[in-house]
Write a structure and sequence with these properties.
single chain; alpha/beta; OB fold (Dihydrolipoamide Acetyltransferase, E2P); inorganic pyrophosphatase (n-terminal core); 4 domains; 25% strand; elongated; binds manganese (II) ion
């Protein structure tokens, strides 16, 4: 795109004793700024049999014929050259000149640096922006540089040759000045790049400080009151704000975000709340029209923790995107997961690549993992417990990230509360908040539908389907149809499972008066279908609780090498029991955890009866609630 060039000449140095004038061509200047007869400061680029090539700036070079070379040089030597002729084909003939004393004047493209937020007013004009390269994407046509400054994100398209990387010296993270014309392309603002220069260390530092300062202010979340009064969450507010700020900053700097969550209703609600906030913020802050897809990914973790399989997949994709598409390494957010030492092996792998983590969880936290996290919201840190669900916390954090999504997501804490069987006072408050549109029965239906659909989705996030289940798309008709089908399907399958397994339950009365119920889900329940063993045990437990009103109840559903625990009225600490058993039963191959009173344990098949009997012994010694 030809641009009319206006040059300004700035006096750098004044020396009255001579009149030799040497020009230094600025980074944004091109051929039109080169004038025959003028002397320029240049740099030796290389040699040919017929002479040497001299660069006048990063983009413009000329040839000094060997007959016009005055001294011996090596590559990158600084030389003074006079322009003999600029030929119609763009070739520049130079001759070397030698002066000891001279005056230097800078030639700069006249382009005022504008802030990215002001670009819409500059349509059709040539402008300069200064900022950090946040992404470099090579297309089959131009190279797309994504630049961020203190006010926004902007793409610049630089074209050298189809599919050839423009400005190969410019790398991800460089601070640059980009000059070009502001255009509309596919309904989006784009800069057609005429010049891109890497700022000197000093210049870069100035811009970096300016951007960093402004981004810090811009990333600061708004002070929104909680949706419901909550002593525990009020105490968590500073940490929630910290998480919100880190996430906002990731969006403003085009850092990809991976959101991993527990694959149940609570986990999904917490993650979807944040998804809504992040996606809308990405849309608001400019950049690519499809940025909300390649800069944000949500994925469930099948295990109740961030397992090695998860980090391996996330790392694999991130590194490929980093190499192929010039993307930054991601920020990883874990919700309803991430607080326990079971997550540690994954954190260790991630730390090799300096991947930052934030965690929003309500599982009983292990202190050993905090060294891997930038921020960690967990009600146990402030005297609360798992009754404050991840869905409540995630929704409150989402509102801090982007308050505009509030009306869309305000029912998610209620769904999460019933899904996770919260008994905290906040449960009733969140339910009351949305009672008109989502009564408790509707919240229960949605929670069940989420669990059921996630079973079929397996490792997928089902982004759009889940929106329909949660009624986030505005198509209430479709939401109702889908929900009715899913509820019917889930209930039919649960009823099937219960009719098969309830007859095989073995009851015991423990010495602390707890009613213990054992179910072998391997041989007395349908396998590889809905409800899976954990949910099957939960459903069995619910029925047994109804049959044993007023009594402490513990249900253990076990398979060949695992057991799932559900309890009511028994003061247990499952993660602690698992840790103790690991020491007490050598060769048990024991691992596991979960919540204090709801969790799971794994072991080697040959040690099953030893492990389960030892576990029952611990339950029999636990205190019961009177
Ligand atoms: Mn949960």
């Amino acid at each position: 795109m030809p641009v009319s060039l206006l040059c300004v000449v700035k006096k750098m140095q004044n020396n009255d004793s001579n009149n030799v004038l040497v020009y230094r061509l600025g980074a944004g200047c091109d051929l039109a700024d080169v004038e025959a007869g003028n002397i320029y400061q240049g740099k030796v680029q290389g040699f040919a049999t017929f002479g040497m090539f001299v660069q006048l700036n990063d983009r413009i070079k000329g040839l000094v014929h060997k007959s016009n070379v005055k001294a011996e040089h090596k590559e990158r030597d600084s030389v003074l050259v006079k322009v003999r002729e600029v030929r119609p084909n763009g070739n520049i003939d130079l001759e070397e000149v030698q002066h000891q004393v001279y005056q230097v004047e800078n030639v700069e493209r006249k382009s005022t640096t504008v802030r990215i937020i002001d670009l819409p007013e500059k349509l059709g004009k040539t402008v300069a922006i200064e900022g950090e390269i946040a992404q470099i994407k090579q297309t089959s046509g131009p190279t797309i540089f994504t630049i961020i400054d203190e006010t926004g994100t902007q793409n610049g398209a630089a074209f050298i040759e189809a599919g050839v990387r423009a400005y190969p010296e410019a790398e991800l993270g460089n601070m640059v000045k980009l000059i070009g014309e502001v255009m509309m392309r596919n309904g989006q603002l784009q800069i057609e790049v005429d010049g891109l220069s890497i700022l000197t260390d000093e210049e870069a530092e100035v811009v970096r400080v300016r951007i960093e300062k402004a981004l810090d202010v811009r990333s600061e979340p708004e002070n929104v009151p909680l949706l419901v009064p909550s002593e525990v969450m009020e105490k968590l507010r500073p940490e929630m704000k910290k998480v919100a700020k880190i996430i906002r900053k990731a969006v403003f700097t085009s850092q990809p975000i991976i959101l991993r969550h527990h694959a149940d209703a609570d986990g999904i609600c917490s993650a979807v709340a944040i998804e809504q906030a992040v996606v809308s913020l990405i849309r608001e802050s400019g950049g690519d029209f499809d940025a909300e897809y390649f800069l944000f990914k949500r994925a469930p973790s099948k295990a109740p923790f961030y397992e090695i399989e998860d980090i391996t997949r996330d790392l694999d994709f991130s590194l490929k995107d980093h190499v192929r598409f010039g993307q930054k390494m991601p920020l990883v957010i874990l919700t309803d997961n991430g607080s326990t030492e079971e997550d540690e092996p994954s954190y260790k792998i991630a730390s090799v690549y300096d991947i930052p983590f934030v965690v929003i969880d309500h599982h009983h936290p292990d202190t050993t993992i905090d060294k891997y996290l930038l921020a960690h919201v967990n009600p146990y840190h402030v005297g609360g417990d798992f009754g404050i669900t991840a869905g409540m916390l995630g929704t409150e954090v989402a509102r801090m990230i982007n308050p505009k999504v509030e009306s869309l997501i305000s029912h998610l804490p209620a769904v999460a509360a019933v899904g996770d069987r919260s008994e905290a006072p906040e449960r009733a408050l969140y339910l009351a908040l949305v009672r008109d549109n989502f009564p408790e029965s509707a919240c229960k239906d949605i929670a069940l539908a989420l669990d059921y659909e996630q079973f079929w989705l397996r490792f997928n996030d089902g982004r759009e389907i889940v929106k329909d289940i949660l009624n986030l798309t505005g198509n209430t008709e479709r939401h109702k149809k889908l929900l009715a089908l899913l509820i019917d399907g889930a209930n039919t399958m649960i009823a099937d499972q219960m009719s098969a397994c309830m007859a095989h339950i073995e009851p015991r009365v423990l010495k602390n008066d707890a009613r213990l119920f054992l179910l072998d889900v391997e041989i007395h329940a349908h396998k590889f279908t809905f409800p899976p063993p954990g949910k099957t045990s939960g459903e069995v437990h619910d029925r047994l609780c109804q049959q044993n009103v007023g009594k402490p109840v513990v249900t253990i559903g076990f398979g060949p090498d695992f057991a799932v625990l559900r309890s009511r009225g028994v003061l247990m600490n499952i993660p602690k029991m698992v840790r103790e058993l690991r020491v007490e039963i050598p060769g048990g191959g024991i691992s596991g955890g979960g919540h204090l009173v709801v969790g799971s344990i794994k072991f080697v098949e040959g040690m099953r009866s030893v492990v389960i009997e030892a576990l029952i012994d611990k339950i029999a010694n636990a205190q019961v609630q009177q």
